[in-house]
Every structure is written in structure tokens, then in C-alpha cells.
Amino acid sequence: MKYKSLAAMLSVGTAAIAIQVPAVQAQAQPTQQSYNIAAQDLGTALQLYSRASGREVIASSSVVQGKRSARVQGRYKADAALSHLLSGTGLVAELVDGALVIREGNVAAEEAGSTEAQGGEAIVVTGSRIRGAGPVGSPVVSIDREAIEKSGYGSVQQLLQSLPQALGGGVTETTLGATTRNGAGSDATYGSGINLRGLGNSSTLVLIDGTRPALGGLGGAFADISLIPVTAVERIEVLTDGASAIYGADAVAGVVNLRLRNRFEGAETLLRAGTSDGDMTDLQFSQIFGKSWDGGHVMIAYQFSERGALAAAKRDYAREDLRPFGGGDYRSLFAAPGTITAADGRIFAIPAGQDGTALDPSDLLAGVQNRHDNRAASDLVPRQRVHSLYASGEVDITDTLTFRANILAAERRYRQQGKTDFFRTAVVPVSNPFYVDPIGSNEPVSVAYDFTKDLGSQINHGRVWAISAATLLEQQIGAWRVQFGGNYGRQRSRASFDNAVNSARLRAALADTNPATAFNVFGDGTANNPATIDSIRGSYTTIDTFDNWSAALRADGPLFRLPGGEVRVAAGAEYRREAYDYFTINDISFAAPDAAPFFGLPGPRSVKSIYAELLVPIFGADNEVPGFRKLDLTLAGRIEDYNQFGRTENPKLGLRWEPVGGIALRASYGTSFRAPLFSELIGETVAFYTTLQVPDPTRPSGVANVIGLFGYAPNVQPETATTWTAGFDIAPPSIPGLKASLTYYDVDYRDRIGSASEDYLRFLVDRESFAGVVTENPAPGLVQGYFNSPLFFNPFGFAPGDISAILDGRTRNLSAERQRGIDFDLGYAPELAGGTLNLGIAGTHIFSIKRQLTEGAPSVDVVGLYASPAKWRLRGRAGWSKGGFSANAFVNYIDRYTNQTALPAARVTSWTTVDASLSQRVGGDAGSDRGLTLSLNIQNLFDRDPPFAELQSSISALGYDPEKANPYGRTVAIQAVIRW
Question: Beta-carbon neighbour count of residue 733 at 10 Å?
Fold first, then answer.
């Protein structure tokens, strides 16, 4: 009987490795013991483990072929030692008739790496709360420690943004200041988030060892992954499926769980230095220590990184004048010398080469507009300096009770020479001693003047400080485990903008009648009194703080046994409290700095939730029949109650079927939601209504007089989504090293919170698409109501009867979006020339993204358009490794797309880049990972520039798309890692 069940488990292999020890020896093993197993061939490592632990281990030779074990050194319980040994292999251990059978992990393990839980006591994979089970039916992509090192990337954000499922749009250091689309404007401190499937940073849930960190950005818009030290990361698990039934809010596009190196043993020092074409430096130092003892373990890791700024002047395409590329001239109308607008509206350019002290009206250039490239002297990305410290530990209080704790603290400082964001038109009264009137009206004139030469470039600088701490008590009761834990996190950000113009003090300086102290805007920015310049110098600072507290009681274990295996369950109750504060110091609007909190933000948010997850093995090793080697079903559900908007309920169903060895079919269905950000619940506290003139091709004049509604609408509710996936995983026993997976996904996203304000100039040009946010020929009473509102501004001086339409650009529950596509990964890792060859390609192809702006509006396919994902994104890989040597190359491809914001719409070509890495270990004992490893890493090997894209915002322009490309160019880094 024993032989029969074991044979069933090993049916995928052609041979088996069986390691047996006498029963007496096995019974004599203590609770914990010492292990010293070097990283090596997995089959050999399992034999050493069996001898040390006294446990019988059986593994198919085809399963372990080509795999290497992790290093295990120190005192461990037997289960923990085996779990750590298997980390990064995608294999799991299952107890069958008293023997440990090593097999491919279910669902997640086909793609996931290590599946050890924090503390290494049991198998927990992102997407499931049940130990020993992956998220049945759902796809998981994993980047293990080996893949991190081979990638050549030096940061967590680079690793995640290289995923085909990720869109570079949203919150990143390269998008801030270039666009506000996809939520890029929600961060002022140059952080980095992850935006799976282009559904938004706040629709991707980020976890650190299964817990939520404090959030950054306006209202808590994203998790700042730039604060996480890559040296402390064991692996990154990415669930590319909705998972609100498991984790609650925000898990719409997926879940990113960063597993840290809590079981690290020994010491590791890293030194890294790099440069991007000599234009941007990159330095990194890290140190990690780990130590085990009888009944405990501790790990501490520190990382320092400093990346220099990249000046826009170093990249030809980073300019506002795009005429050399075939585009338009979008240079700023604010220049030095500037342009005078006379009382009758005519413009006159001030000539260059004079300081404005002896300017005569006859010197002015009628009808000419002076311009200035506001981006030319700025930095594309800022200097960033990050300190990160992580520590974790655990101790066995008794043989069945364990205490664990960890803490992550990080500080990031940045500095950027910015383009001017605070433009000021100087209204010059007649009393100004340098006053010039082009038409002799003796009335005030307006001058579009660039203050940069007087004040210096705008300097953006700030600091982000974050801490996250978690504690956990785990009690083992037979086959059950009960956990009680808590978490606290805080992220505090300060962003300052220096060398801005203070409007109130500028008015006073312009009205000054003393030539020695009055401000002169009629020259080239070289003649003003330094004291006067200092008097108008202003700044703007924002300070925001996000706090979260959570507590959870969880339990999981077997209920009963079916013929197909044990029915297992996980259940729990959780409480989470979040608070957000925003504070401003405004020294650009008033004569004296005004420091005040941001009014209108909702109070603390409390969330109470319960969940349950059930795993039912219908067919398994003991009852398999032809066509049904294994069949698992999972059911999960979660109820969350919010004090701000009520209750949400979300179910999930997963199914995985193995008809024969090496083939698995899977499917999942579930619902998810995203809770509104704190800033999205402000309502009309931050709203304004203003008259505008916008293009209207139906009118003889080409323009229409309208009212624009901007800011936030009241009564914003959660976003909801329905997600389902179907796919397969193949690992044929007859072709060792070959694996393939494909997943079809369908995300139906409703009540999306957003604003169409960035496109308000197109509302009447494309009436069909924007019908839901346009009220044409509004009723007189409606128009009069806006005219009577205290939030109304009328810069054009229109009468109510002049208004032909109302444009709604407020943030509210606006659109519906349905995205369908496939993810795939094909890999082959045969033995070659005494080493292992690794070939593969992973990618995403999006069939459609049907977006409906409002109910009743037409559904428009936006895939392959600017600000949306491209249809194809691919990452190919090729590598070979032997012993301590490894060579790897990666090819990154982003498909061409259409820039619909250009007139006429323009095609943006595809972008293909190649990355390469070489590494060699020097010294150390044979079969050990100790010693010195030297690496050479090159990103964008052939120095491919981003494809030209003519992008214009309300205040600037750019010649490339920072959402789908980066400006770094060829980046070369050398790295040394010493393991000791």
C-alpha cells in the first residue's frame, strides 16, 4: 500500500531518489538541531538533509534535475530546514505515509520561487491564507533571489517595473513633472509605485511579508517601493488576479508581496557603482547579518543608495521646443526678456541685450512673443539618497509557541533642479520707475516674465521617512496553527519648492517708486537689486502623514480527510485603522508665510473584516483515476465594514485540474474593490467652477463659452471589479527543464474614480466620447446656480446667457473599464556543456481595454493609446551558468502605440532594449556560496533612445513618453558581493 501511494506521487518522473534512515535514528532527533548544508545540487542537498534530520525523503530525479538548493546553516526544526532548503526551487514537500515526497508546488509553485512563510515553518504563498497551498486557480509570478541577482537591477522598483504586466505610468520619479495622468500627480516626493495592468497604483495592493505598509502620496495613493532595500528581499511574489476576498481593499489588479530574507544565515556585504552614459551616477552599499541559535533567529540588513540627478540638457529629446523632431514649439510664454501685453490686448516683445533701465517704447517688437524653454535647465530625475534598515527575529517560547517581530525603517531625501511650476504674470503699475507703455495708454501693463535669472532655478527637495513594525504570536495546536499579530506603519513626507515668486511681495516691489529697490521686469534678469530679489523669493511646502494600525487573529488547519486529501480551511478576523493628515506652508500667495492644515479631509478610517477560505481536494494521490490525477477547489469570502462608506462583500472561486502528470488547467473567479483615497473623499471643500473658452468646431468662431467644474465631487463611493482567469501550466516529464504557462484574464472594472479634466479642451471636439461630462444648452436656472456659488470664478466676465455648455472635470465615480488579455511564459532550462542553459520569454498581450467614460457614453477601445498600456510587452531571457559563473541577457520590448493627444494623431514607434549581466564567484569552498562574487551589469546595452512622442501638458512639453520609456540611456554598473 505504501509503495502504491508513493508511486502515484512520483508518476511524473522516470526515476526517483530515495533516501532512508533507520527508524530508531529518526525517533532520536531533537526538536531543533544544527544544519550546515551548502548551496549545491538539490539532489545532493536532500541526501545531506535526510542524514542530518533522520527523515525519509523521496524525490523524482526529473523534479530535482537542474535545481540548486539554498544554503541552510544554523539550528532549525526539521520542517524549517527543509522549507529553507527548497526556497527558490518551486518545489514543495508533502508528507505521504510517513515519507516526505518532493514535488512541484501547486498553482503558485509552477512560477513562484520559495514558498516558505515568515519564520520558515510552513508553506504560505501569496494569494492564499492556507498553509501548504497556493492560490488555486490564480496565476502567481515570482522573482526569487537568484533571479534578482541575475537581473542586474539595483532597486525594487526597477525589478517590478520590468514585469510585462506592469505599466510604467502612474507614480514614478520619471513621470512626476511630465504628466498627471494615471495618478502621476498624486505624489510630490518622487517616490515609485507599481501599476499592474495600467489600472492604477492604488489598484495594486503591496504587502511586505503579508502586511500592509503605510502609504505615500496625496491621500495615501500608493506604496512607495523605493524605500524597500533590495538587499533584504528574498523574493517577490506577484499575484496577477483580483484578491479582495483574501486581502481586502485595493487588490483589484493584483497583489505584490515582498518576502524578506528573514531566515538569512551568515553575512553578506554588497558594493555597487554605476553610471548612465557618464551623466548620472549610482552608488550602493549594503550589509546583512543573520544568526540562528537553539530556539531563535535574528537578521538585520542595512542599505544605502545614492543616485545622482539626470539633467535634461543631457538628453536631446527632453525639451519643450520639439521642432527638430518634427513636432511643435511648446516653449513657455514666460521669458527674460519678457513680453508686454498692453491695455488693448496687443503684445510687444522686449528686446534682448538690455537691462530694462533705459527701454523706450520704440524699442519694442510689436506682435512678437518671446519664449523660453522652461525644461532646458531642469533635471529629468532628481538626486535620490536612501537609507533603509530592516531587522527581524523570532524566538520559540515553548515547543509549540513562537514569537516573531520585524521592523523596517527608511529615509529618502531628494533634490532636483526643477522647471518653473509657479508662473507669475507681472502686472506693472504706472508708478514703477521702469514702466514702459507700448501704446501710451498710461494704464498698467502685464509682462510675461521668467524670474529664473533673478531667483535661480526652482529647487524641488524633500524628505520621506517611513517605519513599519509587526509582531506575531503563533501557537501550534496539533495540525492547526493560530496566529495573533499586530502591525503599525507611518510614512511622513515633506516636499518643498524653493525659488518661487511670492505674489504679494512682488506686487509691492512692482509698485515701489524707488529705482534702487523697485523690481524691474523689462530687462534680461541681470539688473535687479539682490535685496529686492530676496524680498520676492517665496516657497511652497507640503507635509503629509499616513498612519495605519492593524490587528489580526487567524487560524488554519485541516478539517477532515476526503479520498482526494485533507480538506483545509483558513479563517480570521482583522481590524485596521488608517489616518491621513496634510499640511501646507504657503509663502507664494501672502505677504507672510501661511501655515495651515488642509481642511475637508475625512477623519480616521476604521475597517473591520472577517474572512474564510476553504480548500477541497476532490482528486489526489489516493484516489486518482485516468484523466483526474489531481483536482482542487477553493472557495473564499470576505466581508469588510468601513466607517466611511459601509460594507463590502467579496467572494472568490478557484479550480485546478491535473488530467495527467505535467499538465495543469486552472481557472478563477472573484470580485474585488478599491476604497476611495482620503483625498477623494474631500468633496466640494476642494472644488471650483470657472468660465472658460474651449475649442468647438460646430461654432463659426471655433470656440465656445462654457463653465468648467473642477476639483472633487461629493459622495464618492468604492470602485468595484469582477475578475476571472483561465489558463494552463505545462512541464512535460519527457522534456526536463521545459515549462510553459498561459493565462487569459478578464477584468470588468466599474465606478472608477477619476477625472477627465486633462482632456477638457477636447470635450466639445469629441462630443461622442465625452458626452457624459458635457451638459449642452444648460437650463438658465442651473447656470445661475453656478454663478451664485461662492466657488465660482468668472475671469472672462461672461453673463449667464453667454454660457453654451457645462463641462464636468471633477474627480468622481466616473468610468467603467473592461480589460481582456493573456499573460504567458515559456522557458527551457536544459543541461549544456556541464552547466545549465536558461532560455525563455514572458509577455502580455492585451486584446482590448474598453473604456466607457460615463453611463450611456460609447465604449472606446483605448489599448495602444497614449496613457494606456501598449498591446504587447515582452521580456526575453537567455543565460548560462556553471559553478560560480553566470552570463545572462534580457530583451525588453514595448509595442508601438498611438499618441491621440497630438494633432493629428501620431504613431509612436516600438522600443526594444537589451540588458546583460556577467558574474563570477571567486574563492570559497567547493559547493559553498561563500566567497566574492563580481558582477558587470548593463541596462540598455545598445543605448537606444526612447521613441519620439510629442507630449504637451498645460505647463510644459516633452519629446518622449515617460510611462513607456525611460531617459537613462546605457547604464553600466559593477558590483561586488562578499558572502562570509
Answer: 16
Look up the domain containing 775 and give its range: 684-715+756-808
Establish if 787 belongs to a structural domain: yes
The Cβ of residue 883 has, within 10 Å, a number of other Cβ atoms equal to: 11
pLDDT at residue 100 in the model = 73
Say if 519 falls within a structural domain.
Answer: no
Q: List residues bridging with 878 in a β-sheet.
A: 839, 889
Query: On the CB side of 121, how many CA atoms lie within 13 Å of its CA?
Result: 24
Determine the Cα–Cα distance for residues 623 and 630; give it in Å rounded to an integer: 9
- How far apart are alpha carbons 270 and 786 in whole angstroms? 62
- Residue 742: inside a domain: no
Nearest to 502 by CA among 378, 595, 597, 586: 586
Report the alpha-carbon angle 182-185-188, nearest 5.
Answer: 140
- Cell numbers 554605476 label which residue? 274
CATH number at residue 47: 3.55.50.30
Tally of domains in the chain:
2
CA distance 426 to 469: 51
Q: Identify whether 830 is part of a domain.
A: no
Of the three residues 791, 808, 825, the one that is the final residue of a domain is 808
Which residue positions in the chain have pLDDT lower than 70? 1-32, 54, 60-62, 65-66, 88, 94-99, 104-125, 132-133, 925-928
| Cell 519694442, residue located | 364
Kindly report the pTM of this predicted structure: 0.86
Last residue of a domain, one of 808, 841, 875: 808
Q: What is the DSSP letter of 68?
A: B
Neighbouring CB atoms inside 10 A of 905's CB total 11
Q: How many residues are there in the chain?
A: 980
Predicted pLDDT of residue 919: 96
Q: Are 147 and 159 in contact (CB under 8 A)?
A: no
Q: Which residues contact 321 (CB under 8 A, 6 or more apart)?
A: 329, 330, 331, 373
Which DSSP symbol is given to 363?
G
Please answer whether residues 90 and 110 qualify as being in contact, where contact means their C-beta atoms are separated by less than 8 angstroms.
Answer: yes
Position 66 scores a pLDDT of 66
pLDDT for res 928: 65
User: How many Cβ atoms from other residues are within 10 Å of residue 15's Cβ?
Assistant: 11
The identity of residue 158, as a single letter, is Q
Of 873, 894, 974, 879, the residue nearest 933 (C-alpha):
974
CB-based contacts of 48: which residues, under 8 Å, 6+ apart?
Answer: 37
Q: Which residues does 146 contact at the CB level (< 8 Å), separation at least 6?
A: 88, 113
